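Check these lines:
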Amino acid sequence: MSGRQEATHYKDETTDVEAAQQPHYDGDEEKEEEEEYLDDPFDIANTKNAPHESLKRWRQAALVLNASRRFRYTLDLKKDDDKEQRRRMIRAHAQVVRAAMLFKLAGQRDIVLSPAVSPPISSGDFGIGLEQLTSMTRDNNMSALEHYGGAKGLEEKLSTNLETGVSGDMDDMVKRKNTFGSNTYPTRKGKGLLTFLWESWQDLTLIILIIAAIVSLALGIKTEGIKEGWYDGGSIVFAVLLVICVTAFSDYRQSLQFQNLNEEKRNIQLEVIRGGRREKISIYDIVVGDIVPLKIGDQVPADGIFITGHSLAVDESSMTGESKIVHKDKKSPFLLAGCKVADGFGNMLVTGVGINTEWGLLMASISEDTGEETPLQVRLNGVATFIGIVGLSVAVAVLGILVIRYFTGHTKDPNGQVQFISGKTSVSEIIDGVIEIFTIAVTIVVVAVPEGLPLAVTLTLAYSMRKMMADKALVRRLSACETMGSATTICSDKTGTLTLNQMTVVEAYAGKKKLNPPNDAAQMHKEHSTLVIEGVAVNTTGSVFVPKDGGVAEVSGSPTEKAILSWGVELGMKFDAVRSEAIILHVCPFNSEKKRGGVALQLSNSDVHIHWKGAAEMVLASCTQFLDADGSVKPINNEKSYFKEIIDSMAAKSLRCVAFAYRPYERDAVPNTNEEELAQWTLPEDDLILVAIVGIKDPCRPGVDDAVRLCAASGVKVRMVTGDNIQTAKAIAMECGILPPDAEAKEPVVIEGRAFRDLSEQEREDTAKKITVMGRSSPNDKLLLVQALRKGGDVVAVTGDGTNDAPALHEADIGLSMGISGTEVAKESSDIIILDDNFASVVKVVRWGRSVYANIQKFIQFQLTVNVAALVINVVAAVSSGNIPLNAVQLLWVNLIMDTLGALALATEPPTNQLMRRPPVGRREPLVTNIMWRNLIVQALYQVAILLIFNFGSSSFSLLRQGSIEHQNKLKNTLIFNAFVLCQLFNEFNARKPDEINVFKGITSNHLFMGIIAVTAVLQVIIIELLGKFTSTVRLNWQLWLLSIAIGLFRLLASGYCWKDDTSSKDTLVQNVEETIPALSNCT
């Protein structure tokens, strides 16, 4: 293919890929979306894979006063599109460079000239410069690589070793970073406090209030002089500024938490070879010259070149836009940072890091958007919109009524004088009166439109995410934290999640002979032990490092590989010596479908052996002979039942059974040794000779049975999905409490993946509900199970660690990847990373998910109570008397308590064990439950009734008949304001436990709640006693303070005793009936 044709091919392929990457929805999905749109734009059950159209719809339907704040933590749809545009632009740039190189190489071939490559320029302690290395990898310049001597030449120029890596010496690391850069890229700084102040200022109602306050300030100073005239306008300005500052500071703290979590997400841990040993380091610590082992599912951490490996295939779509998998070998050695390993394994030499890679340029040019919808956030925007429309209507009605009453002479000042007399009242007094009325109406809008309601979700999620980090769970998607509260089933892996992932070989059979102890090589024939050691040492992706001082051997690799290699070392295996005596011809990496992996090797005497290792019953099925303990090869036909019994016996003891087999192979039958032919060779997997069977013990994690019991009690079904033998899976499930000891362990309760896979779609859906354990499952079986459960109405959480688990993790409502054993592909497809791979941590995530929902409900109850009470009191007073007891400054203070401080106090309640005694939260369950409606209505009616009694019947109270009429009026309004605020203060206690009698239970564990209550109470005292000029209040004597406290406290005690359900008992129905009757009689 010519350069021109290849360049055209790139272009066509990219277009096809981009078309293929567009989201695809079938007719039924489109119909569902259409129905959803006609029904309710705020009803989005799952935002995980929601199309942009539905996300746009709810934004357009929402009533928003401050868009920059309300939509701060939602997905920025425009920025998302811009990011994709930028990504495509960088991809296009990469393709143009490659196309140009192809044209150049094609021209050079035509004129039979070698490409001109500049000689390497030494850079400090290294024999090649930064620009030469960078351009070589970026341009895929094979000629330059050959000119520099290939991998061996770069080894010398970069002062590294292709087998043992760099020394790891600190001075050497610093030199490399200074010369070639570090593996970091500049990220855009997060918003500062000033930006949040500016965004909080954008609220339309606050802007109107400021303008009104400035006009009032000017008129006040003009009429009353600067000494007295600035109080009314100045107090509103001060109140608005206080609201802005407190809101901005609260939002700023949230953003810092999100930034820290994003930094954690980017900090990938990976293996490098330094000084001959494998060690785990941060991706940021990679340097040029490092040797990085790559395996399936890894992210390529930097630009580099292929050194050694087998069947290494890379998915470069993240960088090039090409969907095809690219095979890497010595003919195509260039590896790009940011790509994912799709198959095989190998080692790479790092040649470019950080900003000197295309991935670094891309990451530096796009800022990570922390915005994301959650279903609860969208629903709360709907609630806020409904309340806002009601509040806006009430505000307009109040404005109209007050204006009419004012101009018809029905509005009186505090002294009882009519405020407007036609022809007598001055223009400035009219303007002042109208502005005061307008300010009240706008302030009602501020209180009535709960802008902070949707943001309370973000606040509680930010708090939960930070706390979940301490519980070993890193949240990648906000919505997952919330959706976990609705999870009805958890499909869990066995290895490492339910078990410790600390594997050891505890049983071993060499032929028909059981080795006791299993690591005693003397019990085997010499030829037998040689073949076992050969299979262990060569057919592995792990490694063994023996320190030069003769210390303990360090084994690395997957837990299974480590167990087998450790067993090999105990048998006397010299890992490096065995591998050096054999030439690896071809490798068939472990396959999760076939459950085995193989290798073909040529020995020093030119004999060829093909070794297989994998699931015992799978390998046994391919064997026709076995190697007995005396070294003789015997037919296996009559002995297969014996070996199956061995496997079943091991499985019944919860052991993972692994078999080793081999076959000699004719050297002439091996394809030509050129890499292309060998790559196409399919390793023979029949006529094998069974060499050994081992049983590997992986103990259950301590406390996993308690975690499973807790899940069962909370209505969450735990299912085990494992690739292990069905007998092993059953034994572990019983040990963990997933399968009761007396359970009938037959299909479909315990089922093999193959049997489930062979069912029809409808049968799978019917069977999925009954499954408790699935053994010998492939990743595709896990995906089918997740799909069947979701179709049946379950909210599914699924754990996974392998690359092939990615589809199931993506499909599930909540994908949980493993932080220790999980691949980068699995982590990127997941919503939450379980950092310690522990099932108990999964259960903690469920508890936090329920806590998010419960905290939001607490805040909704609290906020709606304030909304209803404040609106009703002001409307009734405005309609009946033309004056309202709560003025603009007071309402702004109430708004601050309700909107920001209330959210901080209630949205950060830590989870309680009580949450795990409830069933999962239904996806369509109403946000405001019957108990909440009852509490809300009773609270609001109580507050409205008491405060209106004081408003209209103040003359009946001797405590309020003090001083002049103006003072009495101010005293009455001050008492109403003080009692109203204290009602909200005590109502916060009430909202903490909406369905429990003891609202003070666990109060001391939430220091933030106690702090906010204390600060609010102290500020209220200061406002009443010291800031009367600003808030139009007067000081209250101790009797009126006691009365105010009694009003708030009585409601708290009454609601706690008379109206709540005690859900702490399992016999709630009988208990509540027995307790409610005397309780109600006591109340009456």
